[in-house]
Amino acid sequence: QVQLVQSGSELKEPGASVKVSCKASGYTFNVYAMNWVRQAPGQGLEWVGWINTDSGKPTYGQGFKGRFVLSLDTSVSTAYLQISSLEAEDTAVYYCARARDCSSRSCYSEYWGQGTLVTVSS
Amino acid sequence: QSVLTQPPSASGTPGQRVAISCSGSSSNIGSNYVHWYQQLPGTAPKLLIYRDNQRPSGVPDRFSGSKSGTSASLAISGLRSEDEADYHCTAWDDSLSGPVFGGGTKLTVL
Q: Of A32, A61, A76, A120, which one has the fewest beta carbons inside 10 Å?
């Protein structure tokens, strides 16, 4: 069965960096793209970006260019989201999700990780 | 402020039919597929409807999706207590070159 297991909660100070991992199992990793979605406390969902797991090419949503970096380690079927220069406004749950149709103007998420809470506070 | 507009809340009694709306524009709903997610309290979202009206395997046929022009709707018939959740709509936006979401609708089963 498809499983996406994310790394645990993180507490970081403003200005620090964090790297969230998402380990996939139950399917061939490089056949499906990976989405990343953010949910701030009590808020709706926001698309961070997606990464082509075959080519490694990332695409970022508006507002997520610069400090956010999507990457892969295909040898261990794992996707990563790194955020640098953390701000209080980055406090949120970050989800990875196996994506469909992101290259054809549809882009939805079939299977989701459990989420990783990133808290930015001094 | 979300690009797609959903009512913040909806409610119904067991057995009732409820509909949740999602309003957008010609650059998103008007020209691309709409998808819906269900998010039970304290859990990750789950794909409920994709490509306007398709149900993934395992999703009961009590859930249905429709679209007309720049608006979409999620209908839940035979409402059950376990349907109490947040529901999110999403669609690709051609102007932003990525998917956009509604603010989510909290469904309460009275």
A: A76
Rounded CA separation A6/B35 (Å): 24
Task: Work out the mean pLDDT of chain A and round it to a whole number.
Answer: 96
Q: Does A75 touch chain B (CB under 8 A)?
A: no
What DSSP designation does B61 have?
Answer: T
Q: Looking at the partner chain, which of A101, A110, A115 has a beta carbon nearest the beta carbon of B44?
A: A115
Number of other residues whose CB lies within 10 A of the CB of residue B72: 29
Q: Is the pLDDT of residue A96 over 90?
A: yes
Give CA–CA dist B28/B77, Å, rounded: 27
| Three-state SS at A59 | strand
Do residue B45 and residue A95 have CB atoms under 8 angstroms apart?
yes
Phi-psi bin for A97: left (phi > 0), alpha (psi -120 to 50), beta? beta
Residue of B57 and A105 predicted with greater confidence: B57
What residues of chain B score a pLDDT lower than 70?
none
At B55, phi and psi to the nearest 5? -100, 130
- Percent of chain A at pLDDT exceeding 90: 93
Assess contact for A10 and A116: CB atoms under 8 A: yes
> Can you point out the beta strands (E) in B1-84?
9-12, 18-23, 34-39, 46-49, 63-68, 71-76
Do B12 and B18 meet the contact criterion of CB atoms below 8 Å apart?
yes
What distance in Å separates residue B74's CA from the closest CA in chain A?
A: 16
